[in-house]
User: Fold these one by one.
Assistant:
Number 1:
Amino acid sequence: MKPRLAALLVPVLLALAGCTATTGGEDPAAGPTRAARPSPFADCATLTTAPGSTPAPTGSAAGSPLPELVLSCFTGGAPVQLRDIHGPAVINVWASWCPPCRKELPAFQRLSVRAAGQLQVIGVNSRDSRDGAQAIGEDFGIRFPVLFDQGEALQRELRRTAVPLTLLVDAQGRIRHTDTSGALDDARLADLVRRHLGLVVPA
């Protein structure tokens, strides 16, 4: 009688053990919950709308147009054709694993507030994980639109490998300056915007 009872209980015990094992591992619901977390970044729909001010290009160099690339928006929605972005704009290429990028991102956020209506501040998250980018955006309060460039397509087109990388784009959508000098602060950003885009932004 006892062996027969044991034989009946074994499948039940194994089934219970199996349920415990699956719930003790990775929670299948964890992925969707994390993905459903609201993005800190702004939507990209405004990127193809010109800011209020469109000053004429400064200096003698004509500048080169933005590459013909289509990048996805971090918040979803329609992909963005870089050539359709209306300047003036400051485009910052960054990654969460890059210390100088983390150091300068708050300055770009402050620039986006100070220069609202004059120029657009746009992030391009490169060679990064969505979780890493999301965490940095949340920690530093980054609210400007961010494009996602997992394959470094923009850097390849520009023949630049290092980050951070900052592009100053005029009202005609042409790159007036490419900065690779390292972490930028408020004063340096304001100076670059004044010299290359002809806009005066408080530092």
Number 2:
Amino acid sequence: MKKLLKGLREFQSTYFSTHRELFEELSHGQKPRILFVTCSDSRVVPNLITNAQAGELFVIRNAGNIIPPFGAANGGEGAAVEYAVQALGIEHIIVCGHSHCGAMKGLLKRSSLEDEMPLVYEWLKHAEATRRLLKENYSTLEGEPLLDVAIAENVLTQIDNLRTYPVVHAKLHQRKLHLHAWVYHIETGEVLEYDAMRHAFVTPDENTNVEASPMQCVLSLPDSIDDLSPHKLHQLEAVEDYRKDPEMPWLSSEQTARIYGG
């Protein structure tokens, strides 16, 4: 706590004093153009990894960077998405997962959490689409390779979930909103972004318009386990014969196809 209080004083005497004009402007309102959805993990610092200034990012943080599908929960995530898109005029939404994610480790053994962490157990129900997809399509994996795939697949699941929100759907249709799926690697500082045209996670290029929309976000197990890294994952074959899951009616047809496409 002493370190935080010392940091507070240093912020006020150094950074704030040299950016007084910026904070005066921000006191009259905010105009961010990016909604950044990421994990509560203390090792992930959105403004640090993007070098963004105060007022540039509207941030949602929770365990596992999860956005429950529209109508599936009454939490603050949906309200924050709606406010960001409708009231603030957000133009880009980034869902950023990260390596060594504790929430995704929990998802892989969710049943064991019910007694010790019942709230976490309930929260991870909103990542059920990711869990079932892993079970049906990546049954040969375990350990770190499975965790890496879980992290990447979960980011894409949350992109799918975002599309279930009426306000997001409308803005996407008008091409006034763009969705981006990122994975941040803590140990290297590298960020990979999902390219819907190549169906792979790639190094972002500021001169290239890379999005996780409008095409379906899909990954699959590579031919070789040695090639198992987010930017080497490839597209699942399209599945035409799929059915809606009565236990998860909020899932899009694309999600249902992925889950039952093993």
